Amino acid sequence: MNINDLIIFQSVAEHSSFTKAAAASNTVQSNVTARIKFLESEFNTTLFERTPKKINLTESGIELLKTTKEILLLIEKAKKSISNVDQELKGLIKIGCIHTTAALRLPGILAGFNEKFPEVDFKLKTGTTAMLVTDVLAHKLDGAFVAGQVDDLNLSVTPIVTEQLGVVTSSLIDSIESLFEGKKPIKIIVFSDGCSYRRQFESYLKAYTNKKLTVIEHDTLEGILNATEAGAGITLLPQELIHKHYRYKDLRVFPLPKGMSEVTTYFIKRNDIMVSEAYQTFFEMMVGGYKFY
């Protein structure tokens, strides 16, 4: 076993694909497959659960991914220490983010950080809160911005900003009350199950109407907004997002009742991982009161 075997393993784990890992590692898929089989033989365990559509890390795979990241970090720290040369902060930070925060907050966060540390690279992944929590726990992401409280003893959960949510409709809707009239079901346009905004939206509607809810799922923010603008249904999003970035669309935003409109965005990370200097600096700036968001 050598370091390159672990690098290939990490690539497969993070891409959940032998094909994508081969492309990212500038090698052929057969070599990637051979190296993973070698590691599984070396550790006498199965590292990935393989299905026709995707692969997932096993518990052993998650543990090896954690160890792999620690080994690679130690090597980088040793290189820096042995070279004995002051270097500009560098490294790759892998961050997850819910779609709305990626559109509304993340550009400012990254711009503020990269102005001070231009040599740091970021790899970003968007998804629902549930998806991102899973990836952070599996060591696929260094951390993630999620919405709503997350309760897991393996995670550090830090509040970042509180959003004011509003019901977003087409410009043809005059009031929220008009949606509750008639016999037709209310159509909500949301991300897949696991989205915190979706859960809060469903709770709000069930509290204020007995009408049936039907769901239209989209996997992009633009898809949700376009469908809402066309009158296909209604959605729930941060009010500031619409007012700041989508005023050109034919949309209306109706505030939720007091006590139901606030949702906090948190940054989550594992408690038990070794982190790079770049990542530690990013985290300390973000949670230390530095207002670059």
UniProtKB/TrEMBL annotation:
Entries under InterPro entries matching the protein: LysR_HTH_N, LysR_subst-bd, WH-like_DNA-bd_sf, WH_DNA-bd_sf
GO molecular function annotation: DNA-binding transcription factor activity; transcription cis-regulatory region binding
UniProt entry keywords in alphabetical sequence: DNA-binding, Transcription, Transcription regulation
HTH lysR-type domain segment(s): 1-58
Keyword ATP-binding among UniProt keywords: no
Secreted found in the keyword field: no
Pfam family, one: LysR_substrate
Domain of life: Bacteria
Family the entry assigns: Belongs to the LysR transcriptional regulatory family.
Record-given protein name: LysR family transcriptional regulator
Organism: Pedobacter hiemivivus
